[in-house]
Write a structure and sequence with these properties.
- One of its GO terms (molecular function) is O-methyltransferase activity.
- One of its GO terms (biological process) is methylation.
- The chain is an alpha/beta fold.
- It has 16 helices and 11 strands.
- β8, α14 and β9 form a beta-alpha-beta unit.
- The chain is globular, with a radius of gyration of 25 Å.
- It binds ligand LPSJV3QT and S-adenosylmethionine.
- The ligand CC(C)=CCC/C(C)=C/CC/C(C)=C/C=C/C(C)=C/C=C/C=C(C)/C=C/C=C(C)/C=C/C=C(C)/C=C/CC(C)(C)O binds next to α7, α8 and α15.
């Protein structure tokens, strides 16, 4: 590509110059005004305006969703349509304000306004009730919302984020954490694990595996799903002493106790249990910095037998193709957590190769906003 001098600020390719010209044009009021009237550009101009408006206003959309959940609107509509007055009474909100909320939720396609002025759930609104843990996820966003209140300060790294304190075990706490906090944390993790497990198990095939070690396996939600899908597989869970023992109840309830072993320890301090021919790390790597991840992947590699498999599953950055869930939600989430970072599948593949793994694959997943998967083998 031809390059030209850019007034002392280095060289600029022809593509860059064309882009700069396009940006100046689209950014000019006169052009916008003309494009909004000209038949061939009118639709694009309107669509871009709408898209920009949605980004400008998006934070209020999320708060409408939050209110619909926290005030119990979604719950109260689960059995059919109701009038705003009825909902106002049930949710403890003044009728005229409830009417605004219903109308807003209808505009966002969470509710449908019936001809008689009542509101009912749309397909989207109804789906919300069936997503495990989503209600609690939405509610806990109050914390992240506060952390993002001054976005400039947030990105400069000046915000003392509250979210960091919400997930105590990410910091490797063991033993000295309020048990109630531990339960809230573990329940939210386990509930939100249901879809992650569903998605991960669609992407991988464990039929040639005899024993799976789930590192950072929480209270066993992933292993319970694996156990149901693979009746012969031996299951090993490894997590911090304050978390791992709680998996016992889940394994008992699922009838998995005969083939599920629980190992308490820290992958930052203790050796990993040996004997498994596959290791899974589900939503673990993104909680940690590269040094921890490198050491963890190296121990995983050392623990596995030749031919052993590793499965990484977590939300990922789109890398050279940035995407909303990974790059505009989970990346900010991790910044607020202050301990880890969202990585692209390519970056995780590189870290796996660095640790000695081969045959790295990135199987397709249906819902990358829930999780993405990278697998590899020990040679
Ligand atoms: C019945 C008729 C007439 C027609 C039917 C037509 C039809 C087939 C409709 C489909 C309806 C349907 C089944 C819809 C299903 C929708 C689903 C399943 C939606 C799922 C959505 C899931 C979402 C939005 C998940 C969000 C997850 C989030 C935000 C997770 C966040 C996790 C975090 C922050 C974890 C943090 C952990 C830490 C601390 C960083 O380590
Ligand atoms: C984000 S949660 C994921 C839990 C589970 N895999 C899931 O997807 O629901 C991260 C897990 O890693 C565990 N963890 C964090 N640091 C750890 C460490 N040093 N050793 C072992 N487990 C650790 C946490 O206790 C927690 O259960």
């Amino acid at each position: 590509m031809a390059t030209v001098d850019n007034h002392g600020s280095g060289t600029q390719s022809l593509t860059d110059r064309i882009a700069a010209w396009r940006d100046r044009l689209v950014g000019s009021r006169d052009f916008q005004s003309w494009a909004a009237r000209f038949p061939l550009t009118r639709r694009t101009a309107r669509r871009d305006g709408e898209r920009l408006f949605d980004l400008v206003a998006g934070f209020t959309y999320s708060q409408v969703l939050h209110a619909a959940v926290s005030l119990g609107l979604v719950e109260h509509l689960a059995n059919g349509p109701r009038s705003p007055a009825e909902l106002a009474l049930r949710c403890g909100v003044p009728p005229e304000r409830m009417a605004v909320l219903c109308q807003a939720a209808a505009a966002l396609d969470l509710l449908k306004r019936c001809r008689d002025g009542r509101f009912r759930l749309t397909r989207l609104g109804a789906a919300l009730n069936g997503v495990p843990g989503l209600r609690e996820m939405i509610l806990h966003h109050s914390v992240l919302y506060r952390d993002l209140a001054e976005p400039g300060a947030f990105f400069r790294g000046e915000t003392e984020t509250e979210l960091a304190g919400f997930w105590p075990y990410v910091f490797g706490a063991d033993g000295d954490v309020d048990p109630d906090v531990a339960v809230t944390y573990s329940n939210l993790m386990a509930d939100s694990q249901v879809l992650v497990a569903e998605e991960t198990l669609k992407a991988i095939d464990l039929s040639d595996t005899t024993a799976l070690l789930d590192i950072g396996g929480g209270t066993g939600a992933f292993l319970a799903a694996v156990g149901a899908a693979y009746p012969e597989l031996a299951l090993h869970l490894f997590d911090l002493p304050a978390v791992a023992p709680a998996a016992r109840d889940r394994f008992d309830a699922a009838g998995l106790s005969g083939r599920a072993a629980i190992h308490s320890g820290s992958f930052q301090r203790d050796p990993l249990p040996i004997g498994a021919d596959a290791i899974s790390l589900i939503r673990v790597l993104y909680d940690h910095q590269d040094t921890t991840v490198r050491a963890l992947l190296a121990s995983a590699h050392a623990t596995l037998p030749p031919g052993g498999r590793i499965v990484i599953s977590e939300p990922m950055s789109g890398g050279d193709r940035p995407e909303r869930a990974g790059d505009a939600y989970f990346a900010l989430y991790c910044l607020a957590m202050r301990t880890g970072t969202v990585r692209s599948a390519r970056r995780i593949a590189d870290l796996l190769s660095e640790a000695g793994f081969v045959a790295v694959t990135t199987p397709r997943v249906d819902r990358p906003f829930v999780t993405r998967v990278v697998t590899a083998k020990k040679a």
